[in-house]
């Protein structure tokens, strides 16, 4: 299954700190196999593997896991050291307590602090705390911390933590629509705090990862946590898996999808609404991502790609692709877009 793509906005946002320090960001992009020319398109997107490589390049070149955006420099290896300490914890709650203690060992800490939420204390808030000034004009620094912590916690306990709400202490940003596909929950902007809300039952979930698993995990994290959408246990991700990658064949209908997921069509519509999406949008975005994937494999003709992603007329595919990305399929392919390998 081809991976989901990452908006070009996040590529540009990840480089804000490097730009402030006047580093050669074009060279950084090329080392990550991302075309600077392609990135100029308003609807540019990259593969998750390309984005993961870019994050690793940024951390390596800047020697800063905060990417030049935080209140201080975060030396390489800080995240790995913290994770090694967390591996000794027994439950998610002890993970959050120890991580908060670890972060507060540094001057100008950046922490995620958990606290009960609501009168009945059945929810927990995971609150972002930043001591000091940050350079985060596109909100990427704060977004990335929320994403990393949500996905790290889910990985440690071996189950996806369903979010009840994500709240942000800033106005709805220009790229706010992307948040629907990141957090899969109700969103609130201009909140008092930046935080994630979820069921308190997850706090007692046991940590199931051992040291060899953590060692393997740290070979690619936290870059992978940011790059690869966390959809495995969401209805959105499960539907994408059921649809598959060949739209030249009839797409399963909504009733069949619901039966495979063991829910009624009415329940599935409600679940997708809670995840800020719809069956039609899932199909459209899957077509877009598959088209980008196949365009990166230059031996395949564009008309063949149109058929693979479910268009009977190449002209219709060209119009749809330009609507998705701001470029025609031919222009996308000719803009020095790097070849996308099967594993990307």
TrEMBL record:
Record InterPro entries: AraC-type_N, Homeodomain-like_sf, HTH_AraC, Tscrpt_reg_AraC-type_HTH
Gene Ontology MF: a single term: transcription cis-regulatory region binding
Alphabetical UniProt keywords: DNA-binding, Transcription, Transcription regulation
SMART domains for this protein: HTH_ARAC
Pfam families per record: Arabinose_bd (PF12625), HTH_18 (PF12833)
GO cellular component terms, semicolon-separated: cytosol
SUPFAM superfamilies documented for this protein: Homeodomain-like
Domain (HTH araC/xylS-type) ranges: 237-335
Superkingdom of the organism of origin: Bacteria
PANTHER family to which the protein is assigned, alphabetical: HTH-TYPE TRANSCRIPTIONAL REGULATOR GADX, HTH-TYPE TRANSCRIPTIONAL REGULATOR VQSM
Protein name: AraC family transcriptional regulator
Source organism: Marinobacter nanhaiticus D15-8W
Lineage: Bacteria, Pseudomonadati, Pseudomonadota, Gammaproteobacteria, Pseudomonadales
């Amino acid at each position: 299954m081809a991976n989901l793509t990452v908006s070009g906005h996040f590529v540009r946002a990840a480089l804000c700190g490097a730009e402030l320090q006047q580093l050669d960001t074009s060279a950084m992009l090329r080392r990550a196999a991302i075309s600077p020319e392609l990135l100029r398109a308003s609807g540019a997107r990259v593969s998750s593997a390309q984005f993961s490589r870019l994050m690793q390049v940024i951390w390596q070149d800047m020697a800063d896991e905060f990417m030049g955006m935080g209140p201080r420099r975060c030396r390489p290896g800080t995240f790995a050291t913290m994770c090694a300490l967390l591996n000794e914890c027994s439950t998610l709650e002890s993970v959050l307590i120890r991580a908060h203690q670890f972060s507060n060992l540094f001057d100008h800490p950046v922490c995620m602090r958990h606290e009960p939420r609501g009168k009945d204390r059945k929810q927990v808030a995971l609150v972002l705390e930043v001591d000091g000034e940050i350079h985060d004009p596109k909100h990427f620094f704060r977004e990335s911390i929320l994403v990393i912590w949500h996905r790290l916690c889910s990985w440690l306990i071996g189950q996806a933590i369903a979010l009840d709400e994500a709240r942000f202490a800033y106005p709805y940003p220009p790229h706010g629509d992307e948040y629907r596909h990141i957090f899969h929950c109700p969103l609130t902007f201009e909140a008092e705090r930046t935080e994630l809300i979820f069921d308190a039952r997850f706090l007692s979930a046991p940590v199931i990862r051992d040291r060899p698993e953590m060692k393997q995990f740290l070979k690619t994290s936290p870059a992978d946590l940011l790059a690869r959408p966390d959809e495995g246990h969401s209805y959105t991700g499960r539907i994408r898996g059921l649809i598959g990658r060949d739209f030249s064949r009839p797409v399963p209908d909504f009733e069949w999808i619901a039966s495979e997921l063991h829910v009624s069509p009415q329940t599935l519509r409600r679940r997708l609404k809670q995840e800020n999406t719809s069956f039609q949008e899932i199909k459209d975005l899957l077509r877009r991502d598959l088209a980008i994937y196949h365009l990166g494999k230059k031996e395949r003709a564009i008309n063949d790609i149109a058929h693979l992603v479910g268009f009977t007329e190449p002209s219709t595919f060209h119009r749809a692709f330009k609507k998705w990305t701001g470029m025609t399929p031919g222009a996308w392919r000719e803009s020095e877009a790097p070849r996308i390998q099967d594993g990307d």
